[in-house]
Amino acid sequence: MIEIAVFVLAAAAVLGGALGVVLARNPVHAALGLIGSFFGIAVLFVDLDAHFLAAVQVIVYAGAVVVLFLFVIMLLGVDRSEDLSVEPLGGQRPLAGAAGIALLGVALATLFLAQGDGDVVTGTPSVIGSLAGGENVALLGRALFTDYLFAFEITSVLLVIAVVGAVVLARTPRRRAGDEQVEP
Amino acid sequence: MNVLAAIEVTVSWYLVLGAVLFTIGAVGLLVRRNPLVMFMCVELMLNAVNLTFVAFAKELDDVGGQAVVFFVLVVAAAEVVVGLGIIVALMRRKPGSTADDVSLLKG
Asked: Contacts of residue A135 in chain B, CB cutoff 8 Å?
């Protein structure tokens, strides 16, 4: 009973926030809808025994990512409502709706046609490690630093590349007298 | 009350929710023209996939699914940093531009 209530409330937050992102005319409202959606997903993560990921979801997504979005919105001064009633490309919205229905249909058909004996999930359980073997954080940390160690190290390279890329993109080329540098 | 007590939240519920969330994100990406909002829709799609991964991790009793979500988080953070940098550079060059204005690579 309580599980159903938690799921329904969290799912309502997720879907309501998502619809808010798509339908909001003001980008700031879209960012707020995104926060609602992320919080709902964090609740569902707790429900699914992913405690560390729930905390990270709130800190990284609802915290850092959305704040970065809001920061860029304010920096660029695009925090005014757009006119969504005009449709610059003819037939874009009906086609997008049809594509969405097709996508959802394929996903749900895959889900329910794969259902053999009332079980959606196929595969071998506990390849990396069981979730029942202890604290979630300890289990996840052990998996990351043993089986996924190489991927974890590559992650650091990815982050360095992202930082360098952001610096290069945000830099304004400065020209001095006698500088023969060509405009990039 | 007894009917509700008999219903159990299964993994299918989470998978259906993930599919619906992914679809909303995809349609939003196709419909909206503001590059910032399109970017938010990409985040929604990433989160739908994360939810699916965690649901499968719970059902298969495997912590590997959660490890993959960790990496998706890192990639999403890097993607946001670079993507917002591109959007800032774009808007600086041409204020109020939409995704349609980014057509320099069009043949």
From this structure: none
ipTM over 0.90: no
One of 1.10.490.110, 1.20.1050.10, 1.20.120.1200, 1.10.10.410 is the CATH number of A1-80, namely 1.20.120.1200
- Residue A152 DSSP SS3: helix
Q: Which domains does chain B have, with CATH numbers?
A: 10-97 (1.10.287.3510)
Distances (CA, A) of A175 to A124, B91, B92: 61, 21, 18
* Angle in degrees, CA A90, A93, A98, rounded to 5: 120
A100 touches chain B (CB under 8 A): yes
* Contact A169/B at CB under 8 A: yes
Return all residues near A7 (Cβ < 8 A) that are at least 6 apart.
A44, A47, B9, B13
CB A30 within 8 A of CB A70: no
Q: Which of residues 54-93 of A touch B (CB under 8 A)?
A: 56-57, 60-61, 64-65, 68-69, 72-73, 75-78, 82, 88, 92-93
Q: What does the alpha-carbon distance between residue B60 and residue A125 come to, in Å, rounded to a whole number?
A: 5
* Yes or no, beta carbons of A99 and B26 under 8 Å apart: yes
Residue B14 with chain A: CB contacts under 8 Å:
44, 48
Residues of B in contact with A1 (CB under 8 A): 4-5
Encode chain A (184 residues) as per-residue pLDDT tens digits.
788 899 999 999 999 999 999 998 888 999 999 999 999 999 999 999 889 999 999 998 888 899 999 988 888 877 777 777 777 777 788 888 999 999 999 988 888 777 655 555 566 666 667 777 678 888 888 888 988 899 999 999 999 999 999 888 877 777 665 555 555 5
